[in-house]
Design brief:
The complex is a heterotrimer.
Chain A: H1 24-36, E1 40-45, H2 48-51, E2 65-68, H3 73-86, E3 92-98, H4 99-105, H5 107-115, E4 121-126, H6 161-166, E5 172-177, H7 181-191, E6 198-203, H8 207-210, H9 217-227, E7 233-236, E8 239-242, H10 244-251, H11 256-260, H12 271-294
Helix pairs in contact in A: 1-7, 3-5
Chain B: E1 2-6, H1 7-18, E2 22-25, H2 32-43, E3 50-53, H3 57-69, E4 74-78, H4 80-95, E5 101-106, H5 120-123, E6 131-134, H6 138-153, E7 161-166, E8 174-178, H7 212-241, E9 248-251, E10 258-261, H8 265-279, E11 284-289, E12 291-293, E13 304-309, H9 319-328, E14 333-336, H10 346-354, E15 361-363
Parallel strand pairs in B: 2-3, 2-4, 4-5, 5-7, 6-7, 10-11, 10-13, 13-14, 14-15
Antiparallel strand pairs in B: 1-8, 6-12, 9-11
Helix pairs in contact in B: 1-2, 1-6, 3-4, 6-7, 8-10
Chain C: E1 2-9, H1 14-27, E2 31-37, E3 46-54, E4 69-72, E5 92-96, E6 107-111, H2 113-119, E7 123-124, E8 127-128, H3 131-140, H4 146-156, H5 161-172
Parallel strand pairs in C: 1-4, 4-5, 5-6
Antiparallel strand pairs in C: 1-3, 2-3, 7-8
Helix pairs in contact in C: 1-3, 1-4, 2-5, 3-4, 3-5, 4-5
The chains are: A alpha/beta, B alpha/beta, C alpha/beta.
Amino acid sequence: MVVIAEIPSTEYVLNCTSACAGCGDSLALRYVLKAAGPDTILVMPASCTAAFQGVYPKTAYALPVVNIAFAAAAASASGLSTFLRAKGKKTKVVVYAGDGATLDIGLSAVSGAFERRTDFLYVCYDNEAYGNTGMQRSGATPIGAKTTTTPAGKPEIKKDIDTIIAAHEPPYQATACAAYPQDLFRKVQKALTFEGPTFVHILTPCPPGWRYSAEKTVEMGKLAVKSGIWALYERENGKLVICAPTKAAMKKPVPLEEYLAPQGRFKGIDSATVALLKGRIAENFRRLAAEEAGS
Amino acid sequence: MRKISTGNKAVAEAVALARPDVVAAYPITPQSDIVETIAEFVAAGKLDTKYIPVESEHSSMAACIGAGIAGARTFTATSSHGLAYMHEMTNWAAGARLPVVMANVNRSLAPGWNIWVEHSDAIQERDTGWLQIWVSTVQEAYDTTLMAFRISEHNDVLLPVMINLDGFTLSHIMQPLDTVEPGDFIPPIHLPDPVDPAHPAGYGTITGPADQFRFRYKMEQAMQDAKAVIAETEQDFARRFGRTYSAAEEYRAGDADVVVVALGTLGKEAEVAVDILRDEGIKAGSVRPRWFRPFPDLDLAGKELVVIDRDYSFGFGGVLAHEIRSKYLTKVFSVIAGLGGQEVTYDDIAEFVRKRRIGEEFWFGVSDHV
Amino acid sequence: MFEVRIHSRGGQGGVTAAKLLAGAALHDGKYATACPFYGAERRGAPVVSFVRIDDRPIKIYSQIREPDLVVVLDASVMETVDVLHGLKTGGRVFVNSAHPREFAGYRAAHADLTGIALKENLVVAGSPILNTPVIGALAKAGIVSPGSATAAIREMFSDERNVRAAEAAYREMSA
């Protein structure tokens, strides 16, 4: 476990970005960049993170950022990494992309880059909607959640990007959460010790999108893990290790209702959908436990 | 019923009146609230349309094509990079002779990442076979959307229609809107040969060099036939709803010595400049082309032309200026203004006219003065 | 033509205020346009909306450069934004404020919209609703008629507290 004192104090996210009050993404970003360190190039598609990076001629990030088209991040990173490595450079290439870019419009490029064993870290921060364009549904939106394009609640389940990535057999992948910064820092650091492709998927609670009061971001992140709706784990060369907070949730999960109730996006969610979500949490726990035991 | 509405909401309301069978769409600023409004209508049971929240714009057009080939009335909306991402499939929709209606909220292309109005996105679709129109008021956006379905589905046309609205400037401005009860203004869709197991056929099969050009020629015939269909539709609209539209909107141009030509809201704001210039004794007028494809016949003979392009073809020049030069075999004062949402006011437009240099190109903002 | 610039912060309803004002002007038989100015806006950042009112159709889309009236829904934006920029000589300033404000060379008026909203319990997600009471204040200033202000509010909001807040602002508006 990384103690806070070990986390470098250098900030790569400068003060006064235009991120919303309580933005989970900006919290996660700070720790990802601290773990990556100075010899890093970020590749960032259209996203909230690219929006609060700021307006020309300024940038809020003290690292080079290649802002790229929405679907193209993984492919561009692939090109960049291939060239850097050909020149003998060890500069880290880190994609920092949202759930929309990763699960939806950019999925083909993600799959291609992973299948070709691109040496890069792909970080997907997940606020479970298209945040930058005003909270429309994405493949990562959970079932029952209201967004501007699913005003009655999304009828489909959340797409499992981690299993899709696992099918590409990366040397390292992990799930993380902005409310657990030390765990996130450790995982990004670890991912960067591997020759890629590596993948870290971070739940980043979003006050305007999830419709909760801005000061509750860390609380929402913790409730997501404690209720089991978000599981923390890592796979190193295919071997699964479930992290302690999820192990605790597996033993005694916090009732899912505690996570759903403060969020306006779940207001009016029907009991059948809640039951389905609970069933899926239980099933996911069974699957993870079996995989961990089996490997 | 009269109310205040944004351009985006007006388009969505008109689409709802057209009752499309399928709307497949993907969000992008500044169009997202067109499709969000449609999604709301569907969720509230006000609209019996199947809404497909696809995973990219390439897929939105592909989904509209798939539904359209089976005979569906389809609609989508996009902007800028969304339109660019769809480009392979916009070609396809036109070549497949499908009456897709699309609202494009004009926005510039990156990099830099700029969300404000520019016409380059739609201009780059110029050669695809889509009918293209630029609207300049909330009312016109609403009325044109209603007309678009009828025009595009007409048996002599069967080509998709793109309605262009200036990003933020028109999509998000609130203006008065008079809504209509359409009645039977838009007839039910009836495609000649929808895909059907009872009549097996290939749709878009390999087509050799001896045949392909014939399909392309038919597209151009349809594009030319569309002019009469457009005129007839606009006349019927005027009869039923009392508002008259034609291929271009002229303002004090009849006896003008110098005419400003511009698409979209700049073409409308130019009318304010015209009034100022007239008060100064300059016989100015404006001609705002509405239809861009098929390119309309404009009454420009004997006038000096100040053409404003909110787009550019690198290595050659402003596209509207070029089209006018080549169609009317005349020199123009080509002004490149408003790229990336650059502010252009009626005072600026008046100054372009006062200081015009026919035969030259002028990039507004790059020099200190006109 | 009468031009109004509204200053607020993202999330406070400045855009809705512009829409209500335009809607009220429509009820008065006028032509009105309203537009937010989109910068890199996020909740809490200063934002600006524009309203133009005229007897004839308005063909202007560019920003208002010389407003006749400046409305400040959140006085704190005055710390970083020059709200008087371009205000016509003899123009008016209205500030959401419990105390009178003075702006040399301009006519100022105020009303405690925040206090009025809180009194009516017109609060959403912890923030007082300012966009309906401000229409009442602007009706007092003669920008729109009181009847039209009420009609515009009722078209948008079914909760009568909005109308009551507008009426309170109408009564309390100074000047």
